[in-house]
Amino acid sequence: MTTARYDELATSPLTRYLCHHCGLSFDPRDTSTRVFIVGMERTFRMSAKFPNLYLQGSAVERIGRSSVRYRLSLFEQTGDPNVPLHADYLNGHFASDEGADKILDRFGESAFYLCTLTHVYVDPENGERPVKELSENIARNLKRIHVSEE
Q1: Which domain holds residue 11?
Q2: What's the whole-model pTM score?
Q3: In this model, does residue 53 exceed pLDDT 70?
């Protein structure tokens, strides 16, 4: 797989979360708050293999006035691939969801792909300058996946 494909696997669930929970639109014609990627670091520990299943994890490391740093990871399935996962492949799961531990137990504890991604939230109606502060809805839903720095 190419680096772009790994990035797509890791960032697509985050994009879906930002659209469905934070109300962001990725339509360039939309005049609401947008995000720009201003930083991205990746660490590869092994290669993904077809047809294996992988679990993507998303967390917010830091919430600033107009920027957010995310930690994205991919985990390899370690359980029997012939046993159904009973996972919600469209909407995903929160680690705190009932039954999530049964899904998490089927994947390795160490991520094989790690990505730190930084978004700056901008106002397209103000020359795409950074927003003065994140909206209440965005901030509340980002805090839902925020982890404390260790």
Answers
A1: 3-143
A2: 0.87
A3: yes
